[in-house]
Specification:
Layout lengths: L1 H17 L12 H12 L6 E8 L1 H14 L5 E6 L2 E9 L2 H14 L4 E3 L13
Antiparallel strand pairs: 1-3, 1-4, 2-3
Length: about 130
Amino acid sequence: MKTTVFTAILIGLTYQISAQQGQVTIQQDAKIDQLVDLYTTAHANTGFYQIQVGFGNYEKAQELKDQVDIDFPDWYSKIEFESPTYRVRLGRFKTKLEAERKYLEVRKKYPNAMLLKPKENEAKPKEKS
């Protein structure tokens, strides 16, 4: 008797658990898309001159970035992936004059460094259609 009642309760609970279904509706403010676009534009490399110090596989790029952070501790630096290599880039210079001055300074330590111009066609914020 106990086994039959226990089995019936167990089957009833299993049926109840498996019968649950739900639907989630997300209501998002339209300004969130504008904020995401603004954030993307603000953090993009476009509109800034940068100095590419070197490139290679991830381990080599990480070692180079660590050395760059020691040599130029107050400058912005990061590793970017552009297939098939990782590139170590330094600085976010607004003017060409500032970038060229810093470039000459970097070339003393890293003779293979290159000055990169901003990408004008990507500097404009995206327009919604």
